Amino acid sequence: MTRQTRPTVPRHVAIIMDGNGRWATARHLPRVAGHSRGVDAVRAVIEQAGRRGVEYLTLFAFSSENWKRPQDEVSTLMRLFVNALQKEVGRLGENGVRMRVVGELAAFDSQLQSLIRDAERQTMHNSRLQLTICASYGGRWDIVQSVRSLIAAAADPRELARALTERQLAEHLGLAFAPDPDLLIRTGGEQRISNFLLWQCAYSELYFTHTLWPDFDAAAFDAALAWFATRERRFGQTSAQVSRSAAEQLRA
Ligand code: IPE
Ligand code: IPE
Ligand code: MG
After folding, report:
1. Inside any domain, residue 91
2. In a 10 Å sphere around its CB, with 0-12 CB exposed, 13-18 middle and 19+ buried, how is residue 167 labelled?
3. Does 77 sit in the ligand 1 pocket, CB within 6 Å?
4. For the segment 113-124, what is each residue's pLDDT rounded down to a tens digit?
């Protein structure tokens, strides 16, 4: 029997879902048609992540910078978000998915904010897959809000300035409940982070694919997992050190 020396399934997969607009433009459709097909891809990937034993799935749906898009595109994206919350939350429950939304939620209208709170409440006892939708989210925003909340809670801000640790800062980030992503996928062909999980992706494996988000299906997700399984994660150590500690773990 061969025994694995590396974890082959990532515990936490984060995805920058890019390419909806180009998918639509290539078909002479309005960009919004790409966003609505993008929702189908979200459904397929959530199901596949659950089947493959991924514990945390984090999806970048709308960035802090996406507010700068044309007003009608922003409104359509908000409408799709509302529809998805109204229609899909029951199905998430059936599949054992717990859903959270992380980002600057105060920027959303009150109907959307209350749908988000309801969806989080309705799914809070599920534990098969922890799904996080990052919306109105930016990695820089996340770090700043963490620092702000640390300062606000500090009895002695000077002592905080002297002794602040990475761990404390991480505990106030939006994804404090999750381990750092093992695998970051970006669809759509660009090779950039676009202000996604800046702190949390310090050691993530980065997978870029030209597949546009509406075409990203269960097989495409599996291809990313297969690539991940070939990576050696060294976290600053040498390859020999990593192999030795894996061998020691197997003997233990
Ligand atoms: C990603 O697709 C969805 C959002 C950013 C909301 P895009 O809308 O960025 O699609 P492209 O990159 O223009 O093709
Ligand atoms: C990143 O895509 C944000 C999301 C997928 C939500 P963008 O399309 O906004 O990224 P840039 O502007 O090309 O970097
Ligand atoms: Mg884009």
Report:
1. yes
2. exposed
3. yes
4. 999 999 999 999
